[in-house]
Structures are given as C-alpha cells and as structure tokens.
Amino acid sequence: MDWVSSAGAGGVVIEARCGSAGAACPACGTWSSRVHSGYARTVADGPAADRPVLIRLRVRRFFCGNPVCEAVTFAEQVDGLTGRYLRRSLPLLGLLAQIGLVLAGPAGRGFGCARSPEDAAAPGRRASAARDRRGAGGDRRG
Q: What is the mean pLDDT of residues 41-55?
C-alpha cells in the first residue's frame, strides 16, 4: 500500500501497487517478468467504518514468453482482490451476493409473488383464489 487519503462524499481512497516480480499468463500459465506497460485501475471495495472505499491499483502488463500462446500480453491480478474486467473487489462481490440471497429469501417468495400453499395448489390467478376465500358474492373490500 502506497497511500491512503479521504475522497469526496466521505470516502476513502487507497493507492497501491503490486509487489510481485512477475505473473503467470492466464491463458497458458507461463511465468513472465518482462513488463510490457502499466496502468492504474480503480476497484471498489467494501465499506470501512461506513465510508465507501476505492482502491486505485497500479498494475503492469506483461509479455507472455510462450510463442504458441494466444495471449501476447496480459495484466497482473491480485489474488483474492481483483479479477479480469471487474470493477469491484472479489470480497465486495461475495458480500453483495450474500446480501442478495438474504434479501431474496426462499425462491418464489419475493417481488410480490408470495402465495399461500392454498393459492399455489389452486389453478388461475391469485385474485380469483382470494375471491374464492371471501365468497363469490362477498365483500369486495380487501
């Protein structure tokens, strides 16, 4: 980690770079330490003390030394933090997936689809099943 600073809207920015001597090509697995170029990428991470966290990561592109490999160059990744084409960190994606599963609940119970077992067994629409419980000519008020 090189630097930590405050950002607008109360966020935190962490500036870092990879410290490895090289990386393995994702296509063929050949280790390379021959640098092609470098660039900065921004990755959103989970909040710290209720403040959004951005990681500005300086990464390098390497030449693949394998002459038969389709990947001429490739970018280094930080294990457990980044993935190809991702703008969110892997831990943040895991957290978001868990939140989505908790909020979704059991299958078929979210987004206005909640039905009682009697409704599920009865053919037709939910409105007609609710009307059957009230009585055909009964009170129309909910």
A: 90
Tell me whether residue 125 is in a domain.
no
Name which residue leads in pLDDT, 119 or 14: 14
Among 85, 92, 84, smallest CA distance to 54 is for 92
Dihedral (Cα; 12, 80, 91, 16), 10-degree rounding: 10
Average pLDDT score over the chain: 80
Residues whose CB falls within 8 Å of the CB of residue 71, separated by 6 or more in sequence, listed in order:
25, 26, 27, 28, 64
* Domain coverage including residue 24: 3-88
Please tell me the pTM assigned to this model. 0.62
Domain count across the chain: 1
